[in-house]
Write a structure and sequence with these properties.
about 15% strand, five-stranded antiparallel β-sheet, 5 strands, alpha+beta, single chain, elongated, Alpha-Beta Plaits
Length: about 350
Amino acid sequence: MYFKTIIQGRLEFGTQKSYEKVTKMFLQRLETYYKTDVFFKYEEIFKDDDLSLEIPRYVGQVSEKAFRTTTNLLGYCSQFAIAGSIRGWLINEGEIMHFVTLEPESDKGAVQSFVKGRKLVKVVGKENEALEALSQAIEKYDRHAQAYERRAKVNFIMKNFHDSLRDYNKCIGIDPTIPTAYYGKAKIHMIREEWEQAIENLDESIKKSIALQTLYWKSRKLKAECHIHLKEWQKAAFDLKLFTSRSFEKDNPNKFWIRWANYNYGLVLLELEEYVEAMKAFDRAEDAPGVQDGINEADILTNRGIAKQKAGKTSYKKDIKDAAAKGGKKAKGLLKSM
């Protein structure tokens, strides 16, 4: 039985000696143990010019055995690397059967400094220690894309946006397959209200992640925000329709934004004069659990009332009255003219 697989990433070996070791090992194990079970050829993934193993993105139909065998071999290769990461998914009818992250775990100095820094990034109050460890990893190997990406994250947390943007650019220059680098860049451009640049990077984040990842949908949501700021209503509607149609698991952070997305989808549909669909979006926003997303019930009711009125529904008056009773200023103004 065959399943969809996606594999992408890059490993850096740093020295000719390490590169020669890993390529020799790859060919030996391929010939001795794996033979036809590995679906990558040597010449397809090894790059002699920069001593790396690179898989920009592979999408195919493979057996579960072939997936395990291939990722096991790639995982073995990763232990010769000084930096890098490969991610692989085996998917059956939209559900992830297997997910692997293959990264160096050796005692090399750059590897250990990166592992330490990556852990510290997640600890509140340890930002300076994280910066120090990640900088050490970069000093030991200046092509460490993951270290640049994590250091950019820390700089972003510390509001050092210039340094953060520099590190995100360094990361992408070394390994353009890392979607979080584009997502991080996009957030900086949004803070600067550089909406077009943010959209360009969010497009890359979407392309380089998959729809089964949280990051993919976080990128869709931010991209819709950018299109709204630019009054690009059709493009905003496209992203919001996808987001609001998605069913998120309860522990997925994107679930928090369901009410926000439906409410803003309704506003966008009002701009597009699609009043019946706007009503439905506001209905979903009204039915969604209340969270601290910046949306209040009075605004939902007011705009649903406006959508109903424009759609020729007489029930719009009740929504406006209910919104006014909940303190909606706009609704109170509309009541006076009714």
